[in-house]
Amino acid sequence: MSDRARAFDVEAREVGERVDKCAATRLAGEGVTRGDVGRSADASALLVNGKTVKASYRVRAGDKVSLTLPEPPASDAIPEDIPLDVVFEDESVLVVNKPAGLVVHPARGHASGTLVNAVLFHHAVDDDEAPDRPGIVHRLDRDTSGVMVVAKTPVARERLKVQFQAHTIERVYEAVALGSVVAPLDIDTLYNRHPTDRMRFSSRVREGKRACTHVAPIEAFGALATRVECRLETGRTHQIRVHLSDNGHALIGDPMYSKPPKQPELRAIADALGRQALHARVLGFVHPMTGAVVRFEREPPADFACAVEALRALATRR
Questions:
Q1: Residue 293 belongs to a domain with what CATH number?
Q2: Could you tell me the residue range of the domain that residue 32 belongs to?
Q3: Which pTM was predicted?
Q4: Is 59:14 a contact under the CB 8 Å cutoff?
Q5: How many domains does the chain have?
């Protein structure tokens, strides 16, 4: 048997499962992921009882499953010496405090200078499922700062992805919203692309995925703005920015979902910040290898803190 060949017999408890899920579960300890099994099926290298099958095949008692893993594709991302603020690291995960302005992974218009390029320089990441974004299981917007986790192994990636998909990850953000938020808001909506602007998202849609954000006021700056805490139940692209904007409390400095404030002093604070006032303060999850619950927290960076101080001073003068 080659070093990329795997085989096992289906057990009674697995009967009826899809073969890709069954194989990924049985072979997880060997670093095999569901994506690996799917690519084997695509290459006609996934067999049951000696015959090729699709990844969707439902296994039966006594089936003999064998597969040959495809060669991992080479990563498209190039390691770059970009400083990282490492919060925690072990052999399977890397937790970083991402600065505002840093794109998470290479994409059109950002072929280099991303968090992925920095991570690859810091440590090799074993990820043959997403060569253009190795180890990435979630994202923060370019101009959102805060805590992120990167998977260093395929097993860690798959187990973290399950937690994100099940919405069991603890994610707490701090933001500064325009206007007065006087009571907690539980915002639970459908969520999809904006009907006329495909670069934006909207919660005012008739079809889409569920999005839920729990908002609580922390500090009021008169009627001008409110520092709020946002707990994500789901994690859609731009979710906090859209939910607050669609509820009349767009984030200060958000170039996409808010307009420049009419008050000159407030507009000056937004301009000085130069980005949306949003920081991922807390990230908690079940460690993919040890099973321990881990929780990481970082306070907002200096630019965010300066904006808060300026708002306090402005509210005091009014």
A1: 3.30.2350.10
A2: 5-68
A3: 0.77
A4: yes
A5: 3
